[in-house]
Every structure is written in structure tokens, then in C-alpha cells.
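Field log, afternoon session.

UNIT: design team B
ACTIVITY: writing a sequence onto a fixed backbone
BACKBONE:
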């Protein structure tokens, strides 16, 4: 009798666990949009002169991006992101501080930009520091959708550094510099 009671209790606990797991799955019924870094804007190198290591003033590189999202009925998808960026101070830097900028865009998957926002990141380097890294949190990204039948897989979140056309061409050409001190 005790054995049957213990088995019945275990089964009830197991079913209760399945029920709560099912509720968690239903709370976020669709996929989060993909988050990607635009290759042409994944890094920047700001030269003070010719494109050589000795002429680098500033550099930056997006190292990692993550996105989490939450569905609320028929409302837009509520997302948040973490952008990990490394910043560099080169031999031609004229101070220990520099403002860098990056942008985040919400797009329909492989289509038009719906919304784009820029973020300014002031970076201060220590006297002996040549590299600083940050994880920048974006707490609210709204992914619009018509109704609850539209999944996040229909959208993308694209991230990039604010680069000049010349810097984008440098990136697109696949050029690279070797930094001996790093």
C-alpha cells in the first residue's frame, strides 16, 4: 500500500512538473529574431595618415551579440540585447578618451529596415591601457508584429559600428593589421 501511495505521489509531482514546463513554453511561443553583426560595420580602424599600424588612432570591434525576447499575447515582441565591444587606442591617438558609436536596426528578415537607433559610447583609457572592453545592455527593443500569428523568425536585429564609407570599404576588402603589442 505504501509503495502504491509513493508511486502515486511521484506521478503527481511529475505531472505537475510537466504542467509548469508547458506553461513556460507557452509564455514564449515563438522564436526570437536572429541577431547579426553587419560585416562591413563589425570593426573600425581610424587612421591618422596612411593605412599602417603606426598611424592607427582608434579602433573598435564588435565581439559578441546576444538577444533575448518575450512574447505578450498579440503585442509587439519585447526584446533586450547585449553588445560586447572592444575599443583600442593606437599610437596616433590624441587623448585618453574617445566617443565611439554603434547602431541597432530592426528589419524584416532579409528586407527593409523598420527602425534604427544609434548609441554613443564614451570610452576612457587608463594611462597604460590600450584596450577597453564593454558589454552594453539595451533593455528595450520593440519588434513590431501584426498579431500573435507572426513569429520573431520573420525579423532580424542587425548591429554595426558607425563607420565612414572609407572604413566600410577597408572592412569589405578584408584588410587586416597585426598589432604587435596585443
Amino acid at each position: 500500500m505504501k509503495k502504491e501511495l509513493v508511486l502515486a505521489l511521484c506521478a503527481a509531482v511529475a505531472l505537475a512538473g510537466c504542467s509548469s514546463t508547458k506553461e513556460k513554453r507557452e509564455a514564449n511561443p515563438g522564436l526570437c529574431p536572429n541577431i547579426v553583426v553587419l560585416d562591413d560595420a563589425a570593426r573600425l580602424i581610424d587612421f591618422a595618415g596612411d593605412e599602417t599600424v603606426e598611424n592607427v588612432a582608434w579602433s573598435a570591434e564588435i565581439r559578441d551579440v546576444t538577444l533575448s525576447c518575450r512574447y505578450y499575447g498579440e503585442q509587439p515582441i519585447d526584446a533586450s540585447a547585449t553588445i560586447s565591444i572592444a575599443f583600442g587606442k593606437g599610437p596616433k591617438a590624441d587623448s585618453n578618451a574617445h566617443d565611439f558609436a554603434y547602431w541597432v536596426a530592426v528589419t524584416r528578415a532579409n528586407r527593409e529596415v523598420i527602425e534604427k537607433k544609434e548609441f554613443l559610447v564614451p570610452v576612457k583609457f587608463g594611462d597604460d591601457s590600450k584596450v577597453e572592453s564593454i558589454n552594453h545592455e539595451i533593455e528595450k527593443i520593440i519588434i513590431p508584429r501584426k498579431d500573435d500569428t507572426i513569429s520573431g523568425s520573420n525579423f532580424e536585429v542587425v548591429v554595426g559600428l558607425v563607420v565612414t564609407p572609407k572604413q566600410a570599404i577597408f572592412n569589405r576588402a578584408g584588410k587586416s593589421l597585426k598589432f604587435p603589442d596585443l
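LOG NOTE: Strands lie at 34-37, 43-47, 56-70, 77-89, 97-108, 113-124, 131-143, 155-161.
NEXT ACTIVITY: expression trials, pending approval
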